[in-house]
Amino acid sequence: MIAEYAIPTLGATNLRDDDDKVIGLTFTQTSDTVCSEETNFSMTTKVFCSEDNLTQGAPQVESTVASKDGCETTVTLYHAAGCPVVNFDADVYTDWLYENQWVIGIIYLVAGPLIAGFGLQWFPYVTASLVAIFVIGITSSLSLALGWMATTTGTVITLVVALILGVIAGILIRRNIWIMIGLLGLVAGFFSGSLVYALIFSLSGWSSVWGYWLISVITAVVGCVASCYLGKAIVLLSTSLVGSYLFMRSWTLFFPGNYPSEAELVSGEFELDNEAIFWVFIGVFVLGFVSSVIFQKTRDVSHEDLDNYEKQ
Question: Are residues 63 and 203 in the same domain?
Answer without folding.
Answer: no
